[in-house]
From TrEMBL:
This is Phenylacetic acid degradation operon negative regulatory protein. It comes from the Bacteria. Residues 94-173 form the Transcriptional repressor PaaX-like central Cas2-like domain. Residues 6-74 form the Transcriptional repressor PaaX-like N-terminal domain. Coiled coil: none annotated. The lineage of its organism: Bacteria, Bacillati, Actinomycetota, Actinomycetes, Streptosporangiales. It holds the Pfam family PaaX_M. Residues 177-259 form the Transcriptional repressor PaaX-like C-terminal domain. It comes from Nonomuraea dietziae. GO terms for biological process: DNA-templated transcription.
Length: 280
């Protein structure tokens, strides 16, 4: 299989497909069995589970000598956001209403680390830098959740706006976003998946399903979702999205049967119990 595999992002992928919305927890041993198909060691899986518990993303549930891992409320919110981006928002923005969300800020040098954190969060939320201290994103973005933890106070201004002549929306896209970089990521996805036999070294369709969904989610999370009318007609996200949906449908039945065989599940009520203090 090609490229490095990040255990935590793959763990999120597994949980998003097989745990989200089901009030269930997975036995660590069965997760190790699944990830062995992807070339990940038992040590890597156990350390990933432990880190995710410490970060408040997973909680432990005991049954006898077995330890199961279920989602916390915060992890469920993260995964639900990913589900919306994959299945509802999509990769191609054909419904842009002409508005932009504008974020302007000016922070003193004493808050340099906050400035760095804010820029990182804005990029993650789909914003591009138009000019010094002024960031834009297509559509109306709810940035309150991004800004609140940073305690910016009067240092930040958030507006919605439209372009007026002599400014053109196409110019804003060109100035604030590296469209070639975004396109390059979609072309890399197509190089890997738009073939007659994607990932022939993968052992089965469960492994392919997890890698496919993981690759696609990383793509759409990094995509600023720019208006299609201001992108080239051959924008590669159009083809890439078609390939993703086609392969997702192809892999799902066999992957689901394999997962039902391999994954050991424990029913849990949402928010039930406290994290176990034991190991996994």
């Amino acid at each position: 299989m090609e490229g490095p595999v990040r255990p935590q992002s793959l763990m999120f992928t597994l949980l998003g497909i097989y745990v989200l919305g089901r009030d269930t927890a997975l036995y660590s041993g069965s997760v190790i069995d699944v990830f062995a198909r992807l070339g990940l060691s038992e040590e890597a899986v156990r350390s990933t589970l432990t880190r995710m518990v410490k970060r408040g993303l997973l909680e432990r549930h005991r049954q006898g000598r077995k330890v199961y891992f279920g989602l916390t409320e915060h992890a469920a919110e993260v995964l639900e956001d990913g589900r919306r981006r994959i299945w509802e928002t999509g990769a191609v923005n054909n419904g842009w209403d002409g508005t932009w969300t504008v974020v302007g800020f000016s922070l003193p040098d004493s808050r340099r680390s906050t400035r760095h954190d804010l820029r990182s969060q804005l990029v993650w939320a789909g914003f591009g830098l138009l000019q010094s201290g002024l960031w834009i994103a297509p559509g109306t973005k709810d940035v309150a959740g991004v800004l609140a933890p940073l305690e910016l106070g009067d240092h930040v201004t958030v507006l919605t706006a439209r372009a007026f002549k002599p400014t053109e929306a196409a110019d804003l896209v060109r100035k604030a976003f590296d469209t070639e970089q975004v396109a390059g990521r979609y072309r890399a996805f197509l190089d890997r998946w738009d073939t007659g036999d994607p990932l022939p070294a993968a052992p089965d369709d469960l492994a392919r399903q997890l890698l496919l969904h993981n690759d696609w989610l990383q793509l759409v999370r990094q995509d600023p979702h720019l208006p299609a009318e201001h992108l080239p007609d051959d924008w590669p996200a159009i083809r890439a999205e078609h390939v993703f949906h086609t392969l997702a449908r192809l892999y799902e039945p066999r992957a689901r049967r394999l997962a039902d065989t391999v994954l050991d599940e424990l029913p849990v009520r949402s928010g039930e119990g406290r994290p176990s203090s034991g190991g996994e």
